Amino acid sequence: MTIDATYLLQLTLNGIALGLLYALIAVGLSLIFGVMEIINFAHGEILMLGAFAMTFALPVLGLLYWPALAAAILATMLAGLLIYEVLLARLRTDEFERSILITLGLSIILIHTAQYFFTATPRMVDTQYGFDGVEIGTIRLTWTRLIGAAAALVAFAGLYLTLRFTQFGRAMRAIAQNREAALMVGIRPRVVARNAMILAAGLCGLAGSAIAPIQLVTPYMGQFLIFKAFALVTIGGLGNIPGAVVAAVALGLIESWVGGFFASAWQEGAVFLVMIVVLLLRPEGLFKRGGMRVG
Amino acid sequence: MSSPVLELVSVTAGYGDNPIVRDFSARLQAGTITTLIGGNGAGKSTLLRAIYGTNKFFSGQIVFKDEPVERLPPWERLKRGIGFVPQGRCNFPAMSVGENLKMGCYTLASSRHDVAIERVVSLFPLLRERWRTEAGNLSGGQQQILEMAMVLLLQPSLLLLDEPSLGLSPKMQGDVFATVQRIAATGVTVLVVEQNVRGALLISDRALVMEQGRKFMEGPAAEVRTDPRIRQAYLGGNIQTAA
Q1: What SS3 state is found at A18?
Q2: Which residues pair with A135 in a beta bridge?
Q3: Residue A210: which of A154, A163, A259 has the closest Cα?
Q4: d(CA A151, CA B147)
Q5: Residue A59 near chain B (CB below 8 Å)
Q6: Where are the domains of chain A?
Q7: Chain B residues within an 8 Å CB radius of A183
Q8: Which of A137, A211, B60, B104 has its CA 20 to 30 A from that of A65?
Q9: Which range among A189-203, B136-150, B166-180 has the greatest average pLDDT?
Q10: Which whole-number Å values give the CA distances from A205 to A33, A76, B99, B243, in the listed order?
Q11: Are A271 and A228 in contact (CB under 8 A)?
Q12: In a domain, B18, yes or no
């Protein structure tokens, strides 16, 4: 097999763009786990809501790409707030099993509700950018991929600055590092948990709405992505946010390369094979765990 | 006698459905250091947690500066002037000393952060020297001082300390006790639970002795220190019981 350099570069750029979107999902999971000590099995469905919000906002409301993106993110943040207030606010940190049942149940309900209202038929989201893109030499990247990647990068920068330099963000890191010390300095755990849930849902909503014009939108789309995100969070070192981002971009690259050089049927299998091997060799993940580290 | 800073009236508190502290009453006067003595499981830490509001309160009354606070959440008690440094390492280990101090200002308006931090850093210059060090990389004694500083940022009227010298070298224990005395000298009332009973009694004005969740004895620290039952149980004799 000969490897064409341009083709490889094209696959690499596509892989990075895809990886950044995975990272948005993984970072949200990491935030929720750090602050609430629960794994949100319904996180993929928040992504699906974001994608369906795009299918609604663009053709039905007639919004352009950017306002539709903003509307989808706001919708998912609202969903995050509702999920927290209705289902998660009463969970104690020692109720891990209960949290699994609640979020898994919610995931199933959301999938089937979406299927009831939107049917299982995959939908395409067409934006004003269509398949337009930029061409650098023989390399071509669509605007929707570029915007998705750029939006993800901006979101990470914003998240980093928030967690590092604001009391709002530091409080999330504080609770993840030492719950008792957080109470000692007067942090209100429920308020911080609610903020984390809204923020994580917004990041996931951004991923869903950015993916919508790139991949087909179905009620089940979150399921495949969430299992990858779980593995990414573990490989990145549980609670280590830059670790999750690095692992996600690596995953995106592997997926893109395998899809480009082999039959696409191997894509998913290869990704999970790599994950299993990494977790077998380094069960603690590749980077330092815990404390919602931002650096 | 002036009205006490803290008055506990028949306090019963614990965890889940289990009351650990039962019917406990006491009064703490402003600017005094009181040591809470008792064997393992006597309920000392439970009592401190009840005063700060991080465990289950069953009955009784906790009056702080003439206001009942037993139904308030911890952050409201903190705002009113009750500071609590729990047992064990109680800081944010993956944050720098500077960030830990900023977190200590969490309930303060941002315009007051710099002044508050400058005040405690001048009290503990070590914290300025280690400003960028992750708290988890400080020695045990330095972490204890950081934790006290984090609570002192809010200028509490009452400071609850749970085993501040636990796990420290004898020299660091001495430094921590000296720090507690300096804090009390500024008018802060201190209630301390301490495994080093001898050291704690030497710096204390009063002592409360707990047995099985109830108050067993109370008095000036100098008197309690010389009580034969206390000497036998906590100051070198049989450590089984003071009864």
Answers
A1: helix
A2: A140
A3: A154
A4: 39
A5: no
A6: 19-221
A7: 52, 54, 74-75
A8: A137
A9: A189-203
A10: 18, 5, 30, 64
A11: yes
A12: no
Domain count, chain B: 1
- Could you give phi then psi for residue A133, rounded to 5 degrees? -170, -170
Q: What is the mean pLDDT of chain B?
A: 90
Cβ neighbours around A136 below 10 Å, total: 11
B104:A185 CB<8 A: yes
Q: Looking at the domain assignment, is residue B35 inside a domain?
A: yes
> Would strands B56-64 and B67-68 be described as parallel, antiparallel, or unpaired?
antiparallel
B242 pLDDT more than 50: no
A1, pLDDT greater than 70: no
DSSP characters over B177-243:
HHHHHHHHHTT-EEEEE-S-HHHHHHH-SEEEEEETTEEEEEEEHHHHHH-HHHHHHHSSS--S---
Q: How far off is chain A from B39, nearest CA to CA, in Å?
A: 24
Cα-based torsion angle of the residue sequence B97, B102, B107, B111 in order, rounded to the nearest 10 degrees: 150
Nearest chain A residue to B90 by CA: give it: A181
Inter-residue contact A243 to A30 (CB < 8 Å): no
pLDDT digits (tens, 9 = 90+) for A160-199: 999 999 999 999 999 999 999 999 999 999 999 999 999 9
Q: Among partner residues A167, A178, A186, which is closest to B92 by beta-carbon distance?
A: A178
- State the residue range of the domain holding B85: 30-41+74-206+214-234
Is residue B51, in this structure, part of any structural domain at all?
Answer: no
Q: Which of the residue ranges A63-67, A72-76, A150-154 would you say has the lowest mean pLDDT?
A: A63-67
Task: Report residue A290 as tokens.
Answer: 């815990």
ipTM of the complex: 0.86
Cβ contact B92–A171 (<8 Å): no
Contacts of B106 in chain A (CB under 8 A): 167, 171, 185-187
Q: Which residues contact A135 (CB under 8 A, 6 or more apart)?
A: none
Is the CB of B98 inside 8 Å of chain A's CB atoms?
A: no
Residues 6 or more apart whose CB falls under 8 angstroms from that of A165 comprise: none
Q: A residues 120-179 near B, CB within 8 Å?
A: 167, 170-171, 173-174, 177-178
| B20, part of any domain | no
Could you tell me the pTM of the whole model?
0.87
DSSP SS3 for B160: strand
| CB nearest to A170's CB, from B91, B99, B147 | B99
What burial letters (b/e) apply to A175-190, b meaning 16+ CB within 10 Å? bbbbeebbbbbbbbbe
